[in-house]
Amino acid sequence: MATNVFFSNYNFFNEQQLIDDLVIESIQIYGVDTYYVTRTSAAFDHIMNEDRLTVFDAAYQMDMYVKSVDGLQGEGDFLSKFGLQIRDQATFTVAYRTFERFATRVDPSLIRPKEGDLIYMPMNNKFFKVMFVEHESVFYQTGALQVYDLKCELFEYSNERFETGIDDIDSHYSSFEAIS
């Protein structure tokens, strides 16, 4: 059985643009406002190959769709020999053009979302660390890819600095810094 000759999604930009617009509109309808917070290394140790001081220095507000709408996934809360651990996970979807519009145009070095960056959800006042960026989540049904899927875990604070210029983000962990 041959494919339909009247629809050629792989060769025509207009059909791809239409589907891209529909994906962006559906994320705007069903998504949530988030901040994509970028990470930079202030003191990278090349001998130990570790980052001794992480600074989150820029935040870009954009809309993302939360794929795990049933709540946070993952292993949940459990007791281990190290105490209570919270292993909540979430999957966020952001459109290529949305990321380009709000992040890449401001900082051209941000070609795509990166592992290690954060997503801040003001709705529930939580930070999620990007563990993996799936940039080919669909199998090119329309001849082009429209979205990034960001697989995230709940962020565990460990003396990182926040200097984004947004008070909600920068002051979120200030009580932890005062204690240490």
Number of strands: 10
Structural class of the secondary structure composition? alpha+beta
What is the global morphology? elongated
Arithmetic mean pLDDT = 82
Strand proportion: 35-45%
Rg computed from alpha carbons, rounded to a whole number of angstroms? 19 Å
Largest sheet: 6 strands, antiparallel, barrel
Sequence stretches where pLDDT stays below 50 over 5 or more residues: none
Number of helices: 4
Kindly report the oligomeric state of this protein: single chain
Roughly how much helix do the residues carry, as a percent range?
Answer: 10-25%
**SSE pattern:** HEEEEEEHEEEEHH
For the biggest β-sheet, the strand order reads 1-4-6-9-8-7
Provide an overview of this structure.
It is built from 4 helices and 10 strands. The chain has helices at residues 13-30, 96-104, 167-170, 174-179, and strands spanning 32-41, 44-45, 50-51, 54-66, 73-80, 83-95, 118-121, 126-134, 147-154, 161-162. A hairpin with a 4-residue loop joins strand 2 and strand 3 (50-51). It is elongated and about 60 Å long.
Keywords:
39% strand; two-stranded antiparallel ribbon; 10 strands; 6-stranded antiparallel beta barrel; 180 residues; alpha+beta; elongated
Quick take:
The protein is an alpha+beta fold and 180 residues long.
